Amino acid sequence: MAYRFFRQAHTASELDSGEGMEVHPVSGTLMRYLYYDVRFRRFYALIPEGAWDPNPEQVWEKRISEDRDVRPGEPLPSHWRFNPYPCKKRGKRRV
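^ thats the sequence. predicted structure below, dont judge the formating
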């Protein structure tokens, strides 16, 4: 079951860079399909219109952090629609 609180402390810049996250917590997009812009501390996606589009559209995601550091045990921010952290997968049950 997914947890709805932070298990470890994070700085605002760590949250914005998506450290340890599998999906974007606001949009639900997989992080491997997003690019990170250090200047704006935001992720964006490139959406091509065709296979050989020289100028793909750049779609910006919302910021992840609320410009504050978090401590363990704090609840996830209310603007997060998805839990971005991977859950432990259960191994095969041995009988």
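The helical segments are 12-16.
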